[in-house]
Write a structure and sequence with these properties.
This protein has helices at residues 13-24, 49-56, 61-65, 107-119, 170-174, 243-249, 299-318, 328-357, 366-374, 436-444, 454-458, 461-466, 491-503, and strands spanning 2-9, 29-32, 46-48, 68-70, 73-77, 83-89, 102-105, 124-126, 129-136, 141-147, 153-163, 179-181, 186-195, 204-208, 215-218, 224-230, 259-269, 272-274, 278-279, 282-284, 290-291, 405-408, 411-415, 425-428, 448-451, 472-475, 481-484. By secondary structure, the chain is an alpha+beta fold. Among the domains are: 2-70 and 98-180 and 277-347, FAD/NAD(P)-binding domain (3-Layer(bba) Sandwich), CATH 3.50.50.60; 387-503, 3-Layer(aba) Sandwich (Glutaredoxin). Strands 1, 2, 8, 9, 10, 11, 19 and 20 form an 8-stranded mixed beta sheet that branches. It has a 7-stranded mixed beta sheet with strand order 6-5-14-15-16-13-17. α1 links the parallel β1 and β2 (29-32). α7 (299-318) packs antiparallel against α8. The longest helix has 30 residues, at 328-357.
């Protein structure tokens, strides 16, 4: 029976990304999908600044950049498309991650290119193969697979199995992991069109708070555009798949001869989260672990965060550099963050509904406004694999370390995450004195020593501000800060704490 380090079930964008990550860490990876090819129609449309930075880890950021358009911002508008509430402007902004806050991409193009990249990798790929059963043992997982064409059964084993097989996850069902319903479940119709001529539509996303029908307009990567319309409980969902109905819905934006419909589908927007992200040697990521309404545009991004968080921990565990209880920190770190995204995505829907119900926007309850607009500021991590087991903002712990970037004439010419490598990093602006024991420990951890020059930091406002939090930073492979030295915490204390975690993780 063939054995792999990791098996991934589901080769959508999150599963494919995870496979590339694990391969980069030098693992023997099996990737399984029940379909023959990628999904040919767009589903995800948004990649964030952190999404681009995560894509850099496997060198696919150019795929997204070449197939995307920068998002101008987001506004809440009424049924006449007049501004109500507030508007968020994003055009021209660069975040601490070194990228614009959000770009809109065309998924069939990016998925095709990523699949080609995966085909050229060392990952073993089984397509048209259906997962039939999982035996979750103490030290390995046995997988039963059925070929869709020959109907032949095959079996293999792996150290760890990752379920990235979507909202109806077979992995989650076989593991008998239950879900918590966060009580936003509404039917919407999603419409994608291809424009026939010159674009005259807004480059901002619009949350349309129309009392007759809530809607969202999304300026997808040209020549594509997307609309989402709520379907009321008394309405027949099948009617919304009729072309005439679609034309009526988007009639305030476009004439029928200005576009071609490329997709129309009815979805129930869910807000659910798995009660467990891990069971034994099996893990859930992406939609298999959490599903949010699409209003934040964070569905795929949350899956990417899962993948980045989990992959380096699995790699270190398999290489016996850290003990297996490191893997417990995956759920500890990712579940609260994912639940924030799910709840606050639903919060935007609730705010849209409130704006539609109240004639005067100022009458909308403040808690709904705060929840809706607060959705766009993602929280730091809290508990988990950090100095002392709990993130401390005064040390930068639990925050993402800014990406160093090189500017010429206010334009970015190079993003420099590569200086951190694929492992841990010890970052300072001055020479770091280490004992021979500590040097050997950091080598085993594949830790890069990074000295940032004064001039380099001075030209990076995000980095300059962050470096005031400490003298020496320990950066995790996912670019989150493990901890930093300051007046009360020495470098030696940081490294001793990290060494303890090699022997056992304390996340209380």
């Amino acid at each position: 029976m063939k054995h792999y380090d990791v098996a991934i079930i589901g080769l959508g964008p999150v599963g494919s990304f995870t496979a590339l990550l694990l391969e980069k860490y030098g693992l023997n990876v099996l990737a399984i999908d029940k379909e023959k090819d990628i999904y040919q129609l767009p589903r995800a449309v948004t990649i964030s600044d952190q999404g681009f930075r995560m894509a850099q880890l496997v060198d696919i950021e150019e795929i997204y950049l070449n197939n995307s358009t920068e998002l101008g911002g987001m506004s809440f508008v009424d049924g006449n498309l007049d501004l109500i509430g507030g508007s968020i402007d994003l055009e021209g902004l660069i975040t601490a991650n070194g990228w614009p806050p959000s770009r809109m991409f065309h998924q069939p193009f990016t998925d095709k290119a990523i699949r080609e990249r995966l085909n050229d990798s060392k990952v073993t790929i089984l397509l048209e193969s259906e997962l039939k059963n999982i035996k979750n043992g103490e030290d390995r997982v046995e997988i039963h697979i059925k070929d869709a064409n020959s109907e032949e059964n095959s079996y293999c084993t792996c150290n760890y199995l990752i379920g990235s097989d979507g909202g109806s996850s077979e992995v989650r069902k076989l593991l008998k992991i239950t879900q918590k319903d966060l009580e936003y479940n509404r039917d919407w119709v999603v419409i994608d069109v291809e424009l026939n001529g010159k674009n005259r539509l807004s480059e901002k996303a619009l949350q349309v708070c129309d009392s007759e029908r809530l809607a969202t307009y999304i300026p997808a990567h040209l020549p594509y555009r997307r609309w989402e319309f709520i379907i009321h409980e008394h309405e027949d969902k099948r009617e919304f798949l009729d072309d005439k109905k679609v034309q009526g819905l988007i009639g305030k934006w476009l004439e029928p001869d200005e576009y071609k419909i490329i997709r129309k589908a009815v979805y129930q927007f869910h807000s659910v989260i798995a009660d467990n992200f891990r069971k034994g040697n099996c893990f859930l990521i992406g939609d298999a672990a959490h599903q949010a309404p699409p209003f934040m545009g964070e569905g795929m991004m949350s899956g990417y965060r899962d993948a980045v968080n989990l992959s380096w921990k699995i790699a270190l565990t398999i290489k016996n550099q850290l003990k297996e209880d490191l893997l417990d920190s995956y759920e500890i770190e990712r579940k609260p963050h994912s639940e924030f995204v799910v709840r606050n995505s639903a919060g935007i829907g609730e705010l849209m509904d409130a704006y539609a119900r109240f004639e005067n926007p100022s009458e909308v309850p403040k808690e709904l406004v705060q929840k809706g607009y607060g959705s766009f500021i993602l929280p730091d991590l809290n508990k988990g694999f950090f100095y002392g087991g709990k993130a401390d903002s005064s040390m930068g712990a639990g925050q993402i370390f800014p990406q160093p970037v090189e500017y010429i004439d206010n334009a970015i010419i190079e993003r420099m995450d590569k200086i951190f490598g694929k492992g841990f990093s010890l970052v300072s602006m001055d020479k770091i004195d280490l004992s021979l024991e500590d040097e050997n420990f950091l080598k085993e951890l594949e830790c890069n020593l990074v000295i940032l020059e004064d001039i380099f930091v001075a030209n990076n406002p995000w980095l300059k501000s962050f470096m005031q939090l400490g003298d020496v930073f320990v950066i995790r492979p996912d670019r989150y800060v493990y901890g930093s030295s300051n007046e009360s915490v020495t470098v030696q204390m940081l490294l001793e704490d990290l060494k303890k975690k090699v022997k056992g993780i304390n996340t209380d």
